[in-house]
Specification:
Elements lengths: L1 H11 L4 H29 L7 H17 L2 H10 L5 H34 L1 H26 L1 H6 E5 L5 E5 L4 H34 L8 H33 L2 H31 L1 H7 L7
Antiparallel strand pairs: 1-2
């Protein structure tokens, strides 16, 4: 009875401005992103039999984006009215979102590595063979599943400052919170460093190659990578502010950073619905490049 009363009171509690902004952004992402990623998956699935690895990577990215987006109606309801869906669904949805987000990160890293080797060292890439490429894709998903395990442990239901039940990551102490955020920042910074390294050497090699003055597929992958990091940088900045506030005991700064966390997290969902538009703009070039082989 007490839980029922808590749920009812959360339904009539006022909605904060940041939650209204976040829910509006997330709703637009769901409306645009879900049909867009489904269309991309249908389009890319028709090119998989041609043996090209790049569409397989893009299909994995579209699947991870779709997994991120399909749960958004539940989170929108939670932002506006509180969490009423139980602990099991809370843990499952948190795990699924973290799985898809880590898969997106690893997919972007693998894209940069693949384009670098395939364009500048095609003989080495061809030696990998179909079996090696399948191992790369399977390993990417398995590693994402391992990286996401802590979401199952930390996700819990608790009351927010407005008295609503919310599904969040609940830390035992500030040390655990700081360690978790540092781990996430390390993953993103390391990914950015790897991607930057391969793209720097890729474009330097491309500029020195007369026959490779323009490559539409490489430009598409570059746009995907750039958009990914643009929408992820605000989240990392928020995490850094939270870490600083937690370590210094600055409660007012911590509350401000936590309030803005919903908004910056919503930007990650924007990234998941932007990719289909990038595919659409470059669909003709992608189809031409995957017409018969996996050539650069």
């Amino acid at each position: 009875m007490q839980q029922l009363n808590s749920s009812n009171s959360s339904l009539i509690a006022p909605v904060s401005t940041e939650n209204l902004i976040a829910s509006s952004v997330v709703a637009v992402c769901f409306i645009l992103g879900v049909p867009g990623n489904i269309a991309v998956m249908v389009r890319l699935s028709g090119w998989l039999k041609r043996g090209s690895f790049t569409p397989r990577l893009m299909l994995s990215l579209a699947i991870s984006d779709l997994l991120t987006l399909i749960s958004l109606p539940v989170w929108i309801w939670a932002l506006l009215h509180g969490w009423v869906f139980g602990l099991v669904l809370c843990k499952l949805l948190f795990y699924m979102i973290y799985l898809s987000l880590y898969c997106s990160i690893l997919c972007v890293v693998l894209m940069s590595m693949q384009r670098y080797i395939q364009v500048l060292y095609p003989e080495k890439w061809n030696k990998l063979g179909r079996k090696g490429k399948k191992i790369l894709l399977s390993g990417m998903w398995m590693l994402s599943a391992v990286f996401s395990c802590y979401a199952l442990i930390l996700s819990s239901i608790s009351f927010d400052r407005l008295g609503r039940l919310q599904c969040t990551l609940r830390y035992q102490n500030e040390v655990e919170r700081v360690a978790t955020l540092i781990w996430e920042i390390i993953i993103c910074v390391a990914s950015f460093a790897i991607v930057s390294y391969f793209y720097f050497h890729l474009h330097r090699g491309v500029n020195n190659s007369a026959f490779f003055h323009s490559n539409s597929l490489t430009k598409l992958v570059t746009r995907i990578v750039v958009c990914f990091f643009i929408f992820w940088i605000p989240v990392q900045i928020t995490d850094i502010v939270i870490i600083f506030a937690a370590l210094t005991g600055n409660d007012s700064l911590l509350r401000s950073a936590e309030s803005g966390d919903n908004v910056t997290t919503a930007l990650v969902f924007i990234n998941s619905c932007v990719n289909p538009f990038l595919y659409t703009f470059s669909a003709r070039a992608l189809q031409q490049r995957t017409a018969g082989t996996d050539d650069p």
